[in-house]
Structures are given as C-alpha cells and as structure tokens.
Write a structure and sequence with these properties.
The protein is of the alpha+beta class. The chain contains ten helices and ten strands. It has two domains: 146 residues, Regulatory protein AraC (Jelly Rolls); 105 residues, Arc Repressor Mutant, subunit A (Orthogonal Bundle), CATH 1.10.10.60. Helix 2 runs antiparallel to helix 3 and helix 8 packs across helix 9. The longest helix is centred in the last third of the chain and has 18 residues. It is globular. The protein starts with a helix and ends in a 5-residue tail after the last helix. GO terms for molecular function: DNA-binding transcription factor activity; sequence-specific DNA binding. InterPro entries: Homeodomain-like_sf, HTH_AraC, RmlC-like_jellyroll, RmlC_Cupin_sf.
C-alpha cells in the first residue's frame, strides 16, 4: 500500500470513532504526500523498518519500537522506508492524553500489542464495552511512555532539507562543508552561517547529530556496531564508538543492551 492509498481507505478526518488504528505494510520507499495536517492527533508506530516525520523545521526519526506523536492541526509529512511495517493510531482531541507538541516516544511491548489490537477493529465499527476498555488502557499507558531525543533540527529551508535527505539516503558519502555548499550552489561561508541561523548548531555538530540519530535507528533495527559504523561512513569502528560515547555517555553495545532490556515484557 502507498501513503496516498492509505489516506483513501483510512481518511483521518472522516472516521466516526474517537480512537482508531490501522496496520500497514510498505513495499517501497514512501514519501509521496506533501505536507498536510489532520483535525485528529496521529501516532506513527514503527513495527519493522523505519520511518521519519517532518514537522515544521524538525525531522523526527522513528526506529522500531518507537513512535512519533503529531498533535492535531500540526502540518507534517511522513517518509517510510521500503519493507517497513507501521501502525497509525488516530486520536480525537477529546481523548488525547499526550503532549501538545510533537515528540518521539519509546514504546513498550504492551503498548505495541494494544495498538495492534485496536488496529484489528474495523475502523467504522461502533465502540463496544470491550474495545472501549482496551482503548482506555492504551491511552493511559501511552501517557506514561518516555520521550526520546530522536529529533534533528532541519528548519523549513529547502536547501537544508535537501542536504539532510541526501545524507539520510547516502550517509557514507562524506562530503565536507565545501562539498555540500557546492552541491546546493552556495559559498562555504554562507552555508555555515545558514546552518547556525536555522538550527543553532555548527555544520559539523548538525551532521553528527543526524548520523547519531541514524545510528540509533540502525542499531535498534538489529544492525551490528561494525555494520552501522561502515554504513555511516566511519573510517573505523573505534571512531564511531568514540563519537557515540561522547554524545550519549555510553557505548553502542551498552545502549542496545539497555534498549533491549527495557523492551522485554515485565521490564521496569
């Protein structure tokens, strides 16, 4: 199914129930929809593969077992990688117990199963006592999910968005500031000033933050530390581990073990 087909069979603003969900499998990369918004809140949960959501000047990356929350009336556009499986949870304003701003959430196995249970209900079906109880448990659990930092400031500037998308598509291509400046037809100094003005970060810090978010995404999807380092263009695994530890205070291997432990049923 494509994103356009999804909006046809699952129109967010024309559903008659306060909370509903749909599970969707994507065969190809999907980023066909322009920026749009809904009167309902949207939670995009990644079951397999990865997704990204652009909201205003920020890019939110969504690895497996995470979700991005987009409040009602928030302009956004989604990007889903090939062979991904996601769940879309739609929540009307009166039932929302989540933040009023966009954020990513770390999702427990219980919440993941509850979302899929809701997705098994027919979207047009009237709520029953059973479905209403299940939905209430889901909404309560969601309100306690920890917020994660999988956000990259990219601004609304089309030139920075183009650079970010190119890095995401080919992270191992190590263009420096001069190379990217030439790519978008700017001088090196002008691009450096643009990045600081739009994101508050130097170009090097901004690019490193994007690679860090992508690293978390790949590691959460099961890639080894060595493979992740190669995929992101690091000359050595040691250089990648050093960057990761400086940014997050722990090694990639420890981060993955901690994340896996928190995802196990019964983990606290």
């Amino acid at each position: 199914m494509s994103l356009r087909e999804l909006l046809t069979v699952f129109p967010p603003d024309r559903l008659d129930v306060p909370v509903t969900a749909k599970k969707v499998d994507f065969v190809r990369d999907e980023n066909a929809l322009p920026t749009h918004q809904h009167a309902v809140g949207q939670l995009l949960l990644t079951l397999r593969g990865s997704a990204a959501c652009r909201v205003f000047g920020d890019l939110w990356l969504v690895p497996p077992q995470c979700a991005v929350w987009v409040p009602p009336h928030t302009p956004h556009c989604n990007r889903i990688t090939a062979r991904s499986s996601v769940c879309l949870l739609l929540i009307r304003q009166e039932r929302i117990q989540l933040p009023s701003t966009c954020c990513t959430l770390s999702i427990t196995p219980l919440v993941r199963e509850l979302v899929q249970r809701v997705a098994a209900f027919a979207p047009e079906a009237a709520p029953t006592d059973h479905s209403e109880r299940l939905i209430q448990v889901l909404l309560t659990e969601l309100s306690h999910m920890p917020v994660t930092g999988l956000r990259l400031p990219v601004s609304s500037d089309a030139r920075l968005q183009s650079i970010a998308e190119n890095i995401i598509d080919a992270p191992a291509e190590r263009k420096d500031l001069s190379g990217w400046a030439g790519h978008i037809g700017m001088s090196r100094r002008s691009l450096a000033r643009l990045v600081v003005r739009e994101t508050g970060l130097s170009f090097g810090r901004w690019r490193q933050q994007l690679l860090l978010v992508m690293a978390i995404q790949k590691l959460s999807d099961g890639a080894s530390v060595q493979q992740t380092a190669w995929d992101l263009g690091y000359e050595s695994v040691t250089a990648f581990i050093t960057m990761f530890k400086k940014a997050l205070g722990t090694s990639p291997a420890r981060y993955v073990r901690k994340d896996a432990a928190e995802q196990r049923p019964g983990a606290t």
